[in-house]
Prior knowledge:
- The protein has helices at residues 51-60, 83-98, 118-148, 152-181, 185-197, 200-205, 221-234, 241-252, 256-259, and strands at residues 263-268, 271-276.
- It contains nine helices and two strands, in the order αααααααααββ.
- By secondary structure, the chain is mostly helical.
Amino acid sequence: MRVIGKGGLGRPASRGAQYAGHCSATFASAQRSRRARGKPRSLSGLEPHTGLAIQGARGLDSGCWKSSHVRPNGWEAMPHDDAEAAARRLTALLAGLNLVAFPSLVRPAVPYDSPPTADLVSWARCFYASVLLSHVRQLLGTFLAAVRAGQTPGAFVLARCIFELGAHAVLVHETVGKRRAAGDLPGAWENLARAMVGNSEMRARGERTSAGTEWIKPFHVNDGLRALDRFLAKAGDEKPAQEMYDTLTEHAHPSQGAFSQYYRWENSPNGARVVFVPLHED
Length: 282
């Protein structure tokens, strides 16, 4: 595998290393546009599947930290049918995540230009799992704060980000697992490098790493969605990940889904009018 210079996997950080933490959980669906009267729907449609990322991380962590706290007892037993239950589930999950302490990870003494060893791949798996869960708990805490404050538009944007990270986690778990099962350590290392330090922006600009090499290509979000589809199909969920992602995207991009959260149509003596929320009557 070609070495990724400073900012790459296992080398001292450079500005490109800021992109290394893109990973973690998923939500399986989201609320759609406002009802006819302009009031936001409850979050009962936001079915949390954050556990997908946890499962992926626990499969990658190689025992480098205690993951038993991540899913508190009784988490699965909480009902899924309303917004309050979903909020309780996510709050319990966040409490478990906050109990996890990530130790420092000393990189095995393998030369950067040498083939990866099993120990080096295990170290990279711990690295990925640690940033995966660090990022999900940060975003999940922000998401819950937005929901509690009634900041639905911001919650949509955060949910879309979390969804992408969850799809990413499932994809990495799948690809790295296949490489390791085949005894392909260079392939497993390369997939982890793509997951951790892949950088489309730097590649598009033609910028090079400090070692003079091209930045490695990251996984595409569509690859993650396809991996998530395969995961959900095994779990008996027939709703495609792309459909869920499209709903979140519609409410995150400048389009009807996002804009419709701020107004409603109603009749008035002078004809149809648009009323903006919060209401400011004429």
